[in-house]
Amino acid sequence: MKIKVKGNQNEEIEDLFADYPYAFHSVDLKNTKIPWHWHEELEFDYVLKGSVRVVTPNASYVFREKDGFFMNTNVLATMENIKGERPGWVESHLFHAVFLGGHFKSVFETKYLNPIMQNKKLEIMGFRGENTEQEEMLKKLNQLSALQRKKNTEFQTRNCLSEMWLLLMQQLKNEENNGFPVKRVNQERIQAMMTFIQQNYKEKISLEDIALSASVSGRECLRCFQNCIHKTPYEYLQEYRIEAAKKLLRDTDIPVMDIAFQTGFTDGAYFGKVFKNACGKTPGSYRKNSREEL
């Protein structure tokens, strides 16, 4: 499975449609890279095998085999394997709020969904079987995955998610009573600057250009990138250019030199050097190998 990200770094969810806004993905992180992204959809995940680290601008969360977690709407995050541990295999359930809430401003939306979706303190919540609600949530996650392997289970899927949502609300109440620590900081700024890079990576852009997109100083731009995604703006720009080049190498027959220019590199030799440092092979070898794998 490949994670598709739109031009504004908003993830495009595969297999999620207006008439049934729910999707089930089984992701082997040994073979899949999860870039920094966010999406409007809500998400429940279960670690089927191995271990994973979910990183947001505010915190790093480790989940191991048989753990589960919830990710709130529009949370900027990436997911990665943990060095020295077995690569993770994650089952993900993604759904739009309308799947549970129905029509706009319904009682389901205002009374049940919004208190969580609009909670700026909540980005990730883990389930490790530490209390009754968490144990029940993990059971429900397994039931939900099992439903996706059967036909005609749309109603059961929605019912199961509704029950999980009530468990989530109870768990949140427990966490808040203990002083829930998570706060979203700087996310709007970093999302604005990442969006600017996505829209302008083909051009020559400076630190000042990136900073201006979020109405901050160059110094604040550097601080925000380092604190949120632990990279400089230039490193992030370079990585995005390489990912864009990889897509063109896989999906088109455009000459390598033209791909270099189309992805913001002004020198073909430099592009080849940067690409090899990032991917361990030349652009030509990458293209050949990716097509042999099809």
From TrEMBL:
Kindly state which keywords UniProt assigns to this record, in alphabetical order: DNA-binding, Transcription, Transcription regulation
Family matches, as InterPro entries = AraC-bd, Homeodomain-like_sf, HTH_AraC, HTH_AraC-typ_CS, RmlC-like_jellyroll, RmlC_Cupin_sf, Tscrpt_reg_AraC-type_HTH
Question: CDD domains attached here?
Answer: cupin_RmlC-like
| Molecular functions (GO terms) | DNA-binding transcription factor activity; sequence-specific DNA binding
> What's a Pfam family this protein contains?
AraC_binding
Which stretches make up the HTH araC/xylS-type domain? Answer: 191-289
The answer to whether UniProt assigns keyword rRNA-binding to this entry is no
| Name of this chain's protein | AraC-like protein
Q: Which species expresses this protein natively?
A: Muricomes intestini
